[in-house]
Amino acid sequence: MSRVQLDHIAKAYGNGPRVIRDVNLDIQDKEFVVLVGPSGCGKSTLLRMIAGLEAITDGTLLIGDRRVNDVPPNERDIAMVFQNYALYPHMTVYENMAFGLKLRNMPKTEIKDRVTAAARLLEIENLLDRKPKDMSGGQRQRVAIGRAIVRNPQVFLFDEPLSNLDAKLRGQMRIELQKLHRDLQATMIYVTHDQIEAMTLGNRIVVLRNGDVQQFDTPITLYNQPVNRFVAGFIGTPPMNFLPGRLSGTGPLQFQSDQGAVTLDLSQSVHAPALASFRGHAVTLGIRAEHMSPVPVPGRSMPELTVQADAVEHTGNEALTYFHLDDQRFVARLPADLPLTFGQSFRLFWELDKCHFFDAETELAIR
Amino acid sequence: MKKLLPYWLVAPYVVHMLVFVAFPVVFSVVLTFHRWNIISPMEFIGPDNYVRLFKDRLFWQALFNTFRFLLVHIPLQIGIALGLAELLNRTLRGAAFFRAAFFLPVIVSGVVVTILWQQLLSFNSGMLNRLIAGIGLPRVAWLDDPAVAMYSIAIMATWKNVGLYVILFLVGLQTVPPQYYEAADLEGATNWQKFRYITLPMINPTIFTVVVLSTIGGFSLFIEPYIMTEGGPLNSTLSAVMYIYQQAFQYYHMGYSATLGFFFALLILAVVAIQKRYVEQEI
After folding, report:
1. pLDDT tens profile B105-153
2. Are A218 and A335 contained in the same domain?
3. Closest CA to A11 of A53, A44, A52, A58
4. How many domains does the structure of chain A reveal?
5. For a disulfide at A20, which of A11, A152, A169, A243, Cβ 3.0-4.6 Å?
6. Whole-angstrom distance between the N-terminal and C-terminal Cα of chain A?
7. CATH code (residue A156)
8. What distance in Å separates the CA atoms of residue A211 and residue A18, rounded to the nearest whole number?
């Protein structure tokens, strides 16, 4: 049983402000949870608190129903993979992987069995005699994971383990980590600032900002139903487009952007009931790049706008097309074969029901 | 003129090298085959100086004394320097003050330090013996007992130089990434295990540097015995360099002195090569 529960967890350094504020998370046994957020949001600090490398200022941390606030790291039954791997350069791969087991006075034959089994799982059997400096980044990463696996811990902690790898290798390792999670059937907590990594790896994702949990949910829920503007903007590539404006106070329910570039009739949209209580209020409209299209989809409510392309990025299978509405920069994901160039005007249809609305004051989603 | 400019720019260094390094080295090798007292003309004597060296019991005693000094001085210096560096590497209050305090003796003149310690270790009036006598123990002849004097000098030299090695070790310790210790914490390593399996191997290049520097520094032992004991009692603190100095500037045996120096330089080279073989490890 390797459930991890964080109950009102907080962290402050000395008498300074709290860098982690009242975090509550219930991570289930065998779950893969990703902590994601921008630099300085406290995700690594939170992971290090779970690991026991940082003291917990307030709250209770339970690993497998045992309170571990004051338990030293080695007695928490966890293993951690560091961002820079932290492989001992003077030891061979075998020695690196066996180090922790040796410290526990495990019999040599058992150490050998465990290291060999982990090496086989990670396909690094041929590297056991090498030193870290003689290996590539990807190989080092596997060794670092191998060092964690041999201990057979309840919980695996990963601190941005792929951030030192190139994009192609990162993609490969993501798939391997998923496979590893299936094979090991262990609880894994993974820190990253890369939201694609978060979306592809996590059963659930914790979005952090300034030491606060913004949302803890499945990737698809985060994407489709972000609780606030921050989550909406952080999850998704390219990021969600935002347009500040105001809802009409009387008459038909309309959204008008601040500088008047966009007016949308919302009276027939799925948002109408929720938005009714925000009439006359300042709201922010959000729409993802893929929810704008050069042709209308039959049977859907799709208002039309004419915009002028500022830039077009062809990625082969699509054209990311940039334009401005009011003074906000927008991007639309359009078909690659659309003959668009810089400065050209084109029609764009919005999937109104896929739009998001956020209270301009609280930034919370209006649902 | 423009073509010559680079040569002009390097000329001062080249001249310095030729006059103060290359010429003395070549000249001293030439000298080893001559008898010369500075005043009379040089007389070629073939390998006589080398033959004499191997028969010179006093030189071998001076070498033995030097090794006796090194045997105490190097481990003591490395042990204390590493211990102090470990302490200073922690977030101690006043760490900056202690760093400066430990380094202070290094920059004080060796002559001043030696005179100070001479007073401190004096049999009758020295503060150390007064303290010892104060608690009812017999006074120790720190500098007058042939069995003790060289070790007293070794302790003094350690005090004088340890600050330099503290700084070197401190730099070495600070290059060890903290993640290595954190990874070890997760593995359950004790402080000793972290020191033994992570710190020591990781700072091996620093250890090697310190061993070589303190070996070379130790082999050059001169000021301390020259001022404190003049090589006595019973030649027990006569160091190799002091003996070479005596041969050259007291007896004017310039050829023989050069032979001793040449032999001594080869010996240091051999010792350092051995250290390189056994101390240095590839990380």
Report:
1. 889 998 999 999 999 988 888 888 899 888 988 888 888 899 999 999 9
2. no
3. A58
4. 2
5. A11
6. 37
7. 3.40.50.300
8. 8
Domain of residue B209, residue span: 56-278
Q: Which of residues 175-194 of B touch A (CB under 8 A)?
A: 177, 179-180, 182-189, 193
pLDDT tens digits, one per residue of B181-229: 999 999 989 999 999 999 999 999 999 999 999 999 999 999 999 998 9
Residue of A nearest to B181 (CA): A86
Q: Residue ranges of chain A with pLDDT lower than 70?
A: 1
R_g of chain A computed on alpha carbons: 25
A–B: how many Cβ contacts below 8 A? 59
Instruction: Give the whole-angstrom CA distance, residue A53 versus residue B105.
Output: 39
Which residue, of A188, A212, A234, is where some domain finishes? A234
DSSP E strands: which ranges in A193-344? 204-209, 212-217, 241-247, 254-257, 263-265, 282-287, 292-293, 304-314, 318-325, 328-335
Answer yes or no: do A196 and A224 share one domain. Answer: yes
Q: Do B188 and A80 touch (CB under 8 A)?
A: no
DSSP assignments along B190-250, one per residue = -HHHHIIIIIHHHTHHHHHHHHHHHHHHHHT--HHHHHHTTT-STTTT--HHHHHHHHHHT
* CATH code of the domain in which B261 resides: 1.10.3720.10
Residue range of the domain that includes A15? 4-234
Burial A186-201 (b: 16+ CB within 10 A, else e): bbbbbbbbbbebbbeb
Provide the pLDDT for residue A296.
Answer: 85
Our CA-based measurement puts residue A89 at a distance from the nearest CA of chain B, in whole angstroms, of 6
- CB A53 to CB B180 under 8 A? no
Looking up tokens 């090569």 gives B273
Q: What is the pLDDT of residue A337?
A: 86
Q: How confident is the model at residue B283 (pLDDT cuts 50, 70, 90)?
A: low
Strand order in the sheet with A345-350: A292-293, A345-350, A304-314, A318-325, A328-335
Residue A364, in any domain of the structure: no
Q: Residue A5 has what pLDDT?
A: 96
Within a 13 Å sphere around the CA of A10, how many CA atoms are in the beta-carbon half? Answer: 11
Is residue A367 assigned to a domain?
no
Q: Pairing relation of β-strands A66-67 and A58-63?
A: antiparallel
Q: Best interface-test mutation with A: which of B187, B197, B199, B202 has the largest number of A CBs within 10 A?
A: B187
Contact A283, A357 (CB under 8 A): yes
